[in-house]
Amino acid sequence: MKADYKNWMPKGMVLAAVVATVIFLVLFFIFGLTGVASGTLKRVLFIVFLAGTIIGLCISIWMFLMYRAFSYNGKRQMSRHIIEGIAEHVKLPDGGWGLDVGCGSGALTIACAKKNPKASFVGIDRWGKEYASFNKTLCENNAKAEGISNVSFKRGNAVKLAYGDETFDAVTSNYVYHNIPSGNRQKILLETLRVLKKGGTFAIHDIFSKSKYGDMQAFVKELKDMGYEKVELIDSTGKYMTKWEATWTRLAGSALLVGKK
After folding, report:
1. How far apart are CA 189 and CA 54, in angstroms?
2. I want to staple 156 with a disulfide (CB 3.0 to 4.6 A). Which of 38, 121, 124, 135 is the partner?
3. Same domain, yes or no: 23 and 139
4. How high is the pLDDT of residue 191?
């Protein structure tokens, strides 16, 4: 049995783009090049379906390249490099507990558990429809495939965690909060850090662009003023991906927020 961490660019989305492109192409031939329509209507349909075909083709190619770059089994394996890079920052005491918010297919939860065999990790996710291939059973099967038993997975809400203050020795997350509709994502980060014990570590990776998060340097200062230690915002570009990769995968602004409470 082999672990299946799926892909951050779901195969269903790639196939949907390809199908839409084919439909536009067929309609272009039917209405734009044959005698089914004529005059002004034919010219309009010619332009509309040709534009749809070109746009669909561009999107399909981009999605395919994204799928290939993020594949755990392909040549680039960008996802694996990012996950393992985050896990390197997580060190728990024996008997400690860690929380992974938005665990998806369980990749980061399991990677952290591997690094800390004498601690336990909980992965939570809402497993929404947009990532239908990610679910609790998949996470549990991946843990079994990796021979990892110090993990568990539950349904949860990142905006309001079902845990008391200072419950965990570490909290982690990877590319989660930018997907949550919110006018204040820094508030969601504070909700995550609420469950972190004093002396605990955090490693949170996301697209910390100003448009999504506001001033993150000011947030780092705010955390330090609150008593957090060694708070750093590490640019992912150059660490896990090139600037070119960050641009075309739309991950520009990705960074790793790490520190200790």
Report:
1. 40
2. 124
3. no
4. 97
- 3-state class (DSSP) for residue 195: coil
Contacts of 193 (CB under 8 A, 6+ apart): 171, 202, 223, 228, 261
Closest CA to 168 of 188, 189, 191, 196: 196
Residues 201 and 239 in one domain: yes
Range of the domain at 112: 79-260
Do 201 and 131 lie in one domain? The reply is: yes
Predicted structure pTM score? 0.89
Whole-number average pLDDT of the chain:
94
**Cα separation, 110 vs 103, whole angstroms:** 9
Of the pLDDT bands very low, low, confident and very high (cuts 50, 70, 90), residue 48 is very high
Q: Could you give the residue ranges of the DSSP H alpha helices within 146-209?
A: 185-194
Rounded CA gap, 246 and 226, in Å? Answer: 32
Question: Is pLDDT at 171 greater than 90 in this prediction?
Answer: yes
DSSP designation for 96 = -
Task: Give the domain-ending residue among 45, 70, 95.
Answer: 70
Based on the domain organization, do 58 and 86 belong to the same domain?
no
53: part of which helix (H) or strand (E)?
Answer: helix 39-70
Residues 226 and 137 in one domain: yes
